[in-house]
Design brief:
Elements lengths: L65 E7 L10 H12 L3 H13 L2 E7 L2 H13 L4 E6 L9
Antiparallel strand pairs: 1-2, 1-3
Length: about 150
Amino acid sequence: GPPLFVSLVGSAPRSGISLIARGAAAPALAPTITIPRPTVHSGIDDTRYKDEVRWLMDEEDKNPPQWHVLLLDKTFESQANTITRVASCLAAVLGLSLPAAVMKAERAHDEFYSVLETTPDLSTAVQMAHQLKRNRLVVRVSPGADLETAEGP
């Protein structure tokens, strides 16, 4: 069959005209764009990202219908916090049965977090979270949506 690729290198006539004069100049580089580095918004509340227990996900939702007390997987970064120890703390502070407390501790260990309690009262949720925090557990209070009345996107 016919050749699929034919090279013309070396077969061009050798004249005294340089490649630049014949229009074979190297292409120009595109201009560089400088993108400004993003800065931290001055209105961020530093306590939301540290050891405080309240953790608002949506600033618009100041009075949600319920509050969730969450046990975070960071609890288990300490070697002292075993599933058994954490479950014992949950049972003592929240009044859970030991099997329910073990299930919640295991879920937090395996899946980033576990919902320990849901209450409509923020102060109750914060009190629970502080009691758990005194037991060296990493917890957060997060607003919860009323899924029955929530509107979709």
